[in-house]
Amino acid sequence: MVSRWEKLEKKLKEKNLDAFILTRSVDIFYFSGLWIE
Amino acid sequence: MALLTSEKKFIVTSPMYEEQIKGEEDEWEVIVCEDSLEEKLGELGSSLDIRRCGFQANHLSFARYKKIKEKFKPQLIPCNATVEKIRSIKDEEEINLIRKAGEITLQAFEYLKKALHTGITEKEATRELVSYILKEADGVSFDPIVLFGERTSLPHGHPTERKLKENELILVDAGAKVKGYCADITRTFAWGKIPKKWKKIYNLAYNIEKRAIKHIKPKIKASTIDKIIREKLAEAGYEKKFLHGTGHGVGLEVHEEPFLNRNSNAILEEGMVVTIEPGIYFAGEGGVRVENMVLVTNKGGKILP
């Protein structure tokens, strides 16, 4: 199964990005399992 | 905030969360910062070998963007719905949590039905519903909508001190939350005997809902599902009585990608969980809405739970 991080990594490659900033707690939770801000 | 690179994943957070995340940060480097998180993130980004860094343009205020940009040397590239589109396709674990949240929601509706009595207020009924959900789930997905009589015409009405009378409609829109995952279901009930007009309208909404769900499959446009509903309502002369979109994705947020409406560019894909919620509303008289969560599978739409 493709991990959530691998899905994002694929998107970043498509957009020619080296990194990505997450600014919402709900999205941080999705990738990390941590509820923080 | 978090910064993800192919090499490493960082979380930049305040001391408030330090204890909470202790022991859970195996894969993540956690940077606890007492001052501005944006400045810290800017400094961090500048210290790494990064050229182009995406950010959630639709979820970052201009003020916060400016603060990050002051210290952040790599190019900041605005991205829209990048994460939301990934999140819109659910894995098995997520589907199971949404199913569980849906099961509790339907149980709460049954509990509410037994607690109802003529004279109960919308607010009291809401408290009954919420008390059940809080016993069985982690929380509610949103403030429930519990409306009686003519107030059922308000798609997003707030419960009031309005008392339930004999022979009128009840509309309940609610959802439980399990491990962060939401449910969103609406039912319209009759309290006593209601005029034939409402039975006819309820049956119409129910049948339109069923028909729309039959069309759900991977690769169909979200706008096509919306069109199917609007065309059937138009045939009955009620196209102007449908006051909102056909539905939306459900997951960690109660309203998330994909959105099903006439302007949507979304294409349904296997693993998405969406609501289908036709409604027919008559201002000052009442309304009917039927809403289910539907899993998109390669065999078609499957109602959850």
TrEMBL record, chain A:
What SUPFAM superfamilies has UniProt attached to this entry?
Creatinase/prolidase N-terminal domain
User: Mind telling me what this protein is named?
Assistant: Creatinase N-terminal domain-containing protein
What are the residue boundaries of the Creatinase N-terminal domain, all occurrences included?
A: 4-34
Under InterPro entries, the record lists: Creatin/AminoP/Spt16_N, Creatinase_N
Q: Which Gene3D superfamilies match?
A: Creatinase/prolidase N-terminal domain (3.40.350.10)
Q: What is the lineage of its organism?
A: Bacteria, Candidatus Aerophobota
TrEMBL record, chain B:
Keyword Methyltransferase applies = no
Q: Domain Peptidase M24, which positions? A: 97-298
Q: Which InterPro entries match?
A: Creatin/AminoP/Spt16_N, Creatinase/aminopeptidase-like, Creatinase_N, Pept_M24, Pept_M24_MAP, Peptidase_M24B, Peptidase_M24B_aminopep-P_CS
Q: Does the keyword Metal-binding apply?
A: yes
Q: Where is the signal peptide?
A: none
Gene Ontology molecular functions? aminopeptidase activity; metal ion binding; metalloexopeptidase activity
Q: Where is the Creatinase N-terminal domain?
A: 2-89
Q: Which stretches are transmembrane?
A: none
**Residue ranges that the Swiss-Prot or TrEMBL entry lists as coiled coil:** none
Q: Name one Pfam family in it.
A: Peptidase_M24
Gene3D superfamilies for this protein: Creatinase/methionine aminopeptidase superfamily (3.90.230.10), Creatinase/prolidase N-terminal domain (3.40.350.10)
PROSITE patterns for this protein: PROLINE_PEPTIDASE (PS00491)
User: Which keywords fit this entry according to its UniProt record?
Assistant: Hydrolase, Metal-binding
Q: Could you identify this protein by its name?
A: Aminopeptidase P family protein
